[in-house]
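Technical annex, item 7. During the second reporting period the consortium partners agreed on a shared format for inverse folding records so that results from different sites could be compared directly. Each record opens with the tokenized structure and is followed by the designed sequence. A conforming record, contributed by the partner at site C, is shown below for reference.
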């Protein structure tokens, strides 16, 4: 191997900056030319950028290499390798750290790589390949399991779609194969089984025979915290991972990595370079997700700071045809590394470029790796979607992560975005005991239930004809025909407030939606008893009356009343500066409805085992559990004006949380009018969640058996589950189901169709079963799938 190495490095991303940074530390490296390079590579010792030759002009690159007396070529991205750049330099007698065009098919065609895995018995997910859109679409309709859809060609790390529903899957297929979202990469797709578990990325040096791996890493593909939002090239990474035990790594070497290298050699295309293997650690062991034929990004920025051996020596050992890697050490520091990627505003969709940037000097153990940056004179400008990253190493993972986020503070440009939860999976187990409960946020569901039990006796003393004065249902009722008004209907009343959701409204200065919430909370409680709301009254208490705030709130109340079909007939406004402070206000409302005795719900005496439970989709968190929601937002370090980490629409945390409670009155009244006899009961899922509310409509001998995997869960709940244990989620939030309807078995299809005709999103979520001795009346199946 040469002791005077002159390197041509092809690429301009964060990976290439990290490679140039590490290679420049080798005493054997004389010079590095980067084509085209970026604002970070330009500042490294013995490194020069060259944009005179295009990165895809392979004859031009060969000529440049010959002019600069290059003796080692390092292609960074996948595109040149898939194009066959290695062959151009092999023909010129110049060593290339990277696979041949034939070997690069392992990344260039996911169809090829999946078939390779099947041939060599390498564990992977079940799959099918499609080049015909109609056949792929029909296949999606026939399967029940969740899938991953992959554009078979190279797509800059973004050609993998994980749809959450049949509709999303069909849309993704259309985007890839018909709309050509990823160009010709989508001419063929792989539809494979969605695997669950923890992902690992392993970068391995290979010389065609020997394989030596760097520490296992875990990246974060989604743009938003909690792995929400669109896929990206990678928003952060950490290594080594806690799940990559010695035994697991030995199993991966034995069952996946070595068989891969051996299989490629036996098939006539030995692999030389860096093999990136994406893995899912499932309950059945490690399975291969994909191969990349180059260093990963941001994995490279994460693992190279741990490498103690000379990277240039390792690359030479792999690039030469003499299989020398077994003689070259690959040693890594016994430390941890974390990388936080900072992206341009709007990424991974359209984003601006040429944003002026400032980057301060980094302290020891922290490195700023440039990606989409460029120099314009002495000014640093953004030039890509993933703009720059902060890496740090430490004695513990927590120390490395904390230092990486301190490194992010050294970076400044307008609209910069980064995830705030890098390595959250690694901290998941140690944080399990720290997950929040509603009680920790200052609210006790148990205390509320105890209060109801304690005051029942006092309430019962107020009985009068027509009213039995029994509390604990969704609303209270008086039978006017028994109270001295012959032939009069039953009057039903409900009273409720909005709770601490008002605090978010005050912080966002948006008050109309909580007015809708106030109406929804009351009228939904009426309709579950079979009543039609006909009038509403509100109460508004504050420190000092702000006319604009109060008017906006009441306008929201009026909107809610129109949606529910009831009249806003009056209200009360009170200024109490000694009780409230600043801009604080509180609100309560009361709804009054009517029904005939034959319309009264629930019909507990008619309920039997086998009756079907239908769930009606919620619009979000609705209006309960906000003390806990606000606690989670605070512990995650979010502001209400930050972009919501669980969404893709760009709305802020506050805007998303202020989505008003869905009003179900009109659709349910229509179904009750047309199918009333088949409806046994209804439960409005408010405070207490599914666990506490569904049993309120049931007789003592029956329980609701509900499969929590039976409906689509809004992303906000998936995000909350990272901080709240499943049982607490179930007894605090609606989790995507705002109303549960119990119907006679055999009528469910007809009733679901009727509700869908009214615009509702409806799911069959369970059935009534015999209540066991240990049951609380609501048995939630698959609750463990909510564990983050």
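Designed sequence (site C submission):
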């Amino acid at each position: 191997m040469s002791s005077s190495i002159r390197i041509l490095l092809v690429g301009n991303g964060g990976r290439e900056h990290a490679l140039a940074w590490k290679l420049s530390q080798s005493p054997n490296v004389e010079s590095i030319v980067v084509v085209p390079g970026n604002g970070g590579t330009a500042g490294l010792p013995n490194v020069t950028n060259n944009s005179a030759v295009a990165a895809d002009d392979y004859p031009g690159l060969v000529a440049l290499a010959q002019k600069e007396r290059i003796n080692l070529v390092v292609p960074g991205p996948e595109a040149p390798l898939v194009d066959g750049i290695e062959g151009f330099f092999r023909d010129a007698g110049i060593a290339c750290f990277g696979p041949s065009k034939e070997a690069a098919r392992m990344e260039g065609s996911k169809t090829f790589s999946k078939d390779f895995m099947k041939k060599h018995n390498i564990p992977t997910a079940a799959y099918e390949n499609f080049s015909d859109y109609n056949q792929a679409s029909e296949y999606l309709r026939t399967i029940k399991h969740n899938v991953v859809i992959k554009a078979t060609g190279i797509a800059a790390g973004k050609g993998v779609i994980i749809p959450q529903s049949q509709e999303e899957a069909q849309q993704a297929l259309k985007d890839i194969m018909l709309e050509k979202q990823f160009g010709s990469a989508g001419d063929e797709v792989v539809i494979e089984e969605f695997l669950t578990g923890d992902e690992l990325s392993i970068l391995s040096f290979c010389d065609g025979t020997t394989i030596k791996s760097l520490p296992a890493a875990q990246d974060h593909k989604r743009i938003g915290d909690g792995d929400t939002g669109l896929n990206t090239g990678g928003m952060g990474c950490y290594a080594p991972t806690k799940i990559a035990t010695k035994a697991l790594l030995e199993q991966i070497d034995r069952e996946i990595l070595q068989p891969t290298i051996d299989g490629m050699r036996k098939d006539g295309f030995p692999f030389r370079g860096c093999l990136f293997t994406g893995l899912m650690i499932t309950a059945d062991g490690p399975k291969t997700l994909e191969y990349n034929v180059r260093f990963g990004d941001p994995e490279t920025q994460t693992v190279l700071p741990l490498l103690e051996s000379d990277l240039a020596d390792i690359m030479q050992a792999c690039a030469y045809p003499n299989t020398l890697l077994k003689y070259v050490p690959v040693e890594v520091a016994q430390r941890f590394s974390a990388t936080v990627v900072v992206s341009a505003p709007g990424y991974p969709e359209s984003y601006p470029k040429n944003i002026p940037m400032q980057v301060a000097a980094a302290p020891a153990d922290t490195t700023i790796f440039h990606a989409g940056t460029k120099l314009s004179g002495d000014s640093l400008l953004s030039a890509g979607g993933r703009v720059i990253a902060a890496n740090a190493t430490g004695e513990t993972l927590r120390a490395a992560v904390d230092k990486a986020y301190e490194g992010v503070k050294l970076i400044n440009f307008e609209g910069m975005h980064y995830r705030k939860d890098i390595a959250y999976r690694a901290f998941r187990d140690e944080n399990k005991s720290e997950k929040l409960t509603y009680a920790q946020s200052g609210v006790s569901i148990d205390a509320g239930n105890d209060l109801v039990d304690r005051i029942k006796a006092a309430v019962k003393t107020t009985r009068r004809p027509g009213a039995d004065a029994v509390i604990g249902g969704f609303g209270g009722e008086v039978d006017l025909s028994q109270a001295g008004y012959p032939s009069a209907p039953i009057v039903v009343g409900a009273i409720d407030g909005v709770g601490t959701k008002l605090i978010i409204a005050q912080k966002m200065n948006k008050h109309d939606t909580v007015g809708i919430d106030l109406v929804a909370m009351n009228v939904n409680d009426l309709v579950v008893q079979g009543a039609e709301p006909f009038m509403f009254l509100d109460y508004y208490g504050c420190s000092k009356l702000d006319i604009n705030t109060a008017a906006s709130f009441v306008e929201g109340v009026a909107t809610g009343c129109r949606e529910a079909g009831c009249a806003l007939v009056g209200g009360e406004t009170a200024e109490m500066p000694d009780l409230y402070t600043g801009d604080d206000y509180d609100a309560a409302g009361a709804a009054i409805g009517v029904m005939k005795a034959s319309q009264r719900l629930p019909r507990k005496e008619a309920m039997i085992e086998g009756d079907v439970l239908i769930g009606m989709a919620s619009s979000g968190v609705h209006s309960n559990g906000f003390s806990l929601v606000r606690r989670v937002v605070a512990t995650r370090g979010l502001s209400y004006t930050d972009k919501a980490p669980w969404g893709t629409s760009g709305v802020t945390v506050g805007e998303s949380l202020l989505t008003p409670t869905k009003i179900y009155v009109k659709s349910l009244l229509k179904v009750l009018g047309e199918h009333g006899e088949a409806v046994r009961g209804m439960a409005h899922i408010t405070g207490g969640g599914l666990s506490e509310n569904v049993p309120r409509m049931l007789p003592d001998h029956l329980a609701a058996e509900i499969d929590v995997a039976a409906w689509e869960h809004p992303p906000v709940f998936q995000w909350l589950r990272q901080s709240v244990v499943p049982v607490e989620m179930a007894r605090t939030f609606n989790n995507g189901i705002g109303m549960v309807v119990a119907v006679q078995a055999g009528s469910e299809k007809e009733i679901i169709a009727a509700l869908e005709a009214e615009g509702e999103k409806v799911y069959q979520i369970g059935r009534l079963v015999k209540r066991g001795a240990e049951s609380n009346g609501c048995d939630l199946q698959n609750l463990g799938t909510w564990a983050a």
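The chain is about 30% helix and 25% strand. Residues 440-445 have pLDDT under 50 and may be disordered. All partners now use this format for quarterly exchanges.
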